[in-house]
Design brief:
single chain, two-stranded antiparallel ribbon, 3 helices
């Protein structure tokens, strides 16, 4: 009885080894022979590379979106400052502002203006 158990045990082990050997048989792609482990490693590397590439692209697009929003805020701020500066310029160029500046600087208005006649190409002489 011991002989039959060992022989069946040996049969099962050899049968299992033959099955596992046939399952990991190398694959052929044209004249190139690939082992199953090599193919799995290549596939895993491709999946990891694709995943990292996807994350990189998504990250770059989100960073670009944040930069665009910041630039848009800068444009709006600059436009507000431009409107304020245009209002200030209009106020400073107004007649009332010029008259107030003249009084502050103690300037006197010229009432009687005389122009010299031009003689030839000489405008003023001694």
């Amino acid at each position: 009885m011991i002989l039959t158990q060992s022989s069946s045990h040996t049969f099962r082990r050899s049968h299992f080894q033959e099955r596992s050997h046939t399952q990991t048989r190398p694959s052929r792609l044209g004249s190139i022979v690939f082992d199953g482990l090599v193919l799995n490693s290549i596939m895993l590397a491709l999946i990891v590379f694709t995943g990292l590439s996807y994350l990189f692209v998504i990250n770059q697009s989100s960073v670009s979106g944040f930069k665009m929003e910041e630039l848009q805020r800068n444009i709006e701020t600059s436009q507000r400052e431009l409107r304020q500066l245009e209002l200030s310029r209009a106020q400073l160029q107004s007649l009332a502002s010029i008259e107030a500046a003249g009084e502050r600087l103690q300037m006197v208005a010229a009432n009687d203006v005389h122009f010299l006649p031009a003689v030839g190409t000489v405008v003023a002489s001694r």
